[in-house]
Design goal:
heterodimer; A: 310 residues; B: 298 residues; mainly alpha; MetI-like fold; two-stranded antiparallel sheet
Amino acid sequence: MTTTTGSVRNTAPPKSPAPRLRSPRAARPGRPRRSVLLTVLTGVVLVYSLLPLVWLLISATKSQQGLARSFGLWFDRDFDLWHNIGTTFTYQDGVFGRWLLNTLLYVVVGAGGATFLAVLGGYALAKFAFPGKRAVFAVVIGAVAVPGTALAVPTFLMFSKMGLTDTPWAVIIPSLISPFGLYLMWVFATEAIPTELMEAARIDGASELRTFFQVALPLLAPGTVTVLLFTMVATWNNYFLPLIMLKDPDWYPLTLGLDSWNKQAQTAGGEAIPHLVLTGSLLTIVPLIAAFLLLQKYWQSGLSAGSVKE
Amino acid sequence: MTTLQPPVAVRRRRSWTGWGFIGPFVLVFALVFLAPLAYSVYLSLFRTQLIGGTTFVGLDNYQQALQDSQFWEGVARVGLFLLIQVPIMLGIALLVALAIDSGRLYGKDFFRITVFLPYAVPAVVATLMWGFMYGTRYGLVGDLDDALGTKLPDPLSADLVLASIGNIVTWEFVGYNMLIFFAALRVVPHSLYEAAEIDGAGQWRVITAIKLPAIRGALVIATIFSVIGSFQLFNEPAILQKLAPNAITTDYTPNFYTYSLSFAGQQQNYSATVAIVMGVITMIVAYVVQLRGMRKGA
C-alpha cells in the first residue's frame, strides 16, 4: 500500500490540474517557508490515520495462533497472508466470493444507477426552468434532514409487502437515491456547461437527448466521477440497509458477511475465526482504497468545483 | 455564499423538458423517501396487540415515547457524544486542512490523501479493526499490557466504551471533513492574502480574519452532517456489541432502540413513533445549528 501511495504521489503532480492552479502562488517570492515543526505536528494525525490500516495489514499475515502470540504491530514468525486469503475464499464453500460478487452487483447497479439519476437530475436543475422546480428542491433538501434510519422500518415493511425483501432489489432500490450526489451535480453542471453551447447544439438541430449525451455529459465527467466514487463508497460500505432487508446469507454483501463471521465466535458452538475476519476485512477495503488513489485527480477537481460558491 | 443556497438557474423559457431529466430521480425518490415517510406517520397512529388486533390510538404512541426513559437515556447518550466527539473531530479536521493549505508542510499531497483514506473503509471494517485492537486478547491494548507489565483500562468496559466509539467515528470521518474544509480553503481568492501581507498581518490573523470567515459555509455544513450522523449512531455500537456485550445494551442509541423494537420486539408501530420523534429532534438541532452558523458575522 505504501508503494502505491508513493508511486501515485510521484507521478500525479505533473498531470493533475491541481498543482497548476497553485503554481502562481508557489512561484511568487515570499511564499511560505516549509516548516519541520508543523509537518511533525500534522504527522501525528497522519500516523493516527494510518496506524489501524498498518495493524490490519500486518494482522492479515498471521495465523490464528500467530495473532494471539505476536506483537500487533510486527510480523509473526509464520507469514500466512497467502494461506489466509486462500482460506477466506474457500471457507464455508467459498461464501466470501459470493459476498464479493453480491457487493459488486450492488455497487455497479446501485451506485451506477444513483450516479446516473443524479447526473440527469442535476443537469435538469442547473439548465432548465420547469414547473414545480422549487418544490422539487424544497422536498429533496427537506428530506435529507430526515434521518435515513428513521425510514428503515417503514421501508422494510413496504418492501416486505411487495415481496422485495431478501432479494437484491431491497438493497439496490434505496441505494439509487443520493441527495448529496444530486446537489453536487447541480452545482457542477451550473459551472461546467456553458448555456451557449447547448443553444448552439439546439440550433444545429440536435435533440435534447443528443445535446445531453454529446455536449453535456463529457463536460460533466469530473463531477460524475466524484459522485460515482462517493456513491460507490456508500453502497460498498452499506451495512444497515442490508442488515434489515436480508436474511439469506447468499445475498449478503461483504460488510454483512464479515459481521456474521465475527458474530460466529459468540454463538454457542461457533468457530472463532479472527484471522479470516481480519483477512476478509483487508480484502474488503483494498478495492476502494485503490479506486480512490487511482482516480484522485478526478474526484479532487470535482470536489473543489463543488465548493465553488460566490 | 453558502452551499445551502441553490445555484442561480439559467433563465430559460419554462417548459416541461426538464422533467424528462429529473423525472426518474423524483420517481425513485418518491418510492424510497416520501412513501416510507408517509407510511411511518400512518404506522405511528396505530397499535397492534395480540388481543384486539390493530387499532387506531391517535397520539398514544407519541405520549408513550415522550415518557420512555429507555429512549431518553439513548438521546442523552448521543447528545453527550455529539457535544464531545464532534468538536474534537471537526477541530482536528480544521487544523489539518489549515496546515495543508498553508503550504508549509513537506509532502502535503501525501498528507491530504492519507488522512482521507479511512473514509474509504466501511464502518463495519473500521469497527472490527478497532474492536480487535481494543481487545486484550489479540489487540494492541493486550500487547501494551504484556510489554509494559501494566493493566490498562479496558476500552470496551461500560465506562469507556462511548469514548471508544467516539474514537472510531473520529478516525473514520476526520479525513472527510478535512477535505471539505480544504476544498473550501482552496477557492479563497489569493488577492486577499496578498492584501493581508501588505498590511503586515501575521499567519494567525490571516486565519482568523480571512480563512475562517471564508469557509463558514463549509463549517456549518460539516457540523450539520456531524449532528445528523451522531443522532443516527448505529453501526459502530451494533457491531461493537458482539465484542462488548455487557457494555452496550440494545437500547444504547435511539436508532439501536428502534431497530431492536422493530426486529427483535416486533413493535413496529412504536418503533416508527420513536424514529419519527428522533427525526424531529434531529431536524430541530440541525436547523438551530444552521441558523446560528449563518447569523454569526453575516
